[in-house]
Amino acid sequence: MKKIRITLVKSPIDRPERQKLTLQALGLNKLNASKEVEATPQILGMVRKVEHMISVEDVA
Length: 60
Prior knowledge:
It is a single chain. By secondary structure, the protein is an alpha+beta fold. It has a single domain, classed as CATH 3.30.1390.20. About 30% of the residues lie in helices and about 30% in strands. The chain has two helices and three strands; from the N terminus they run βαβαβ. It has helices at about 15-25, 40-50, and strands at about 5-10, 35-40, 55-60. The mean pLDDT is about 95.
């Protein structure tokens, strides 16, 4: 399965609680934290919900 690297680039302060919980579920707790995850439909759905606060890149 394809892997992606997600990085938190904007602070979750003053965001809805649901978006904060989504970031926590992705494993992004601190600013500039990165995580490599499998690109499953569930993960891609979570990424889509918070795409304005993260950057996404493919991992070869």
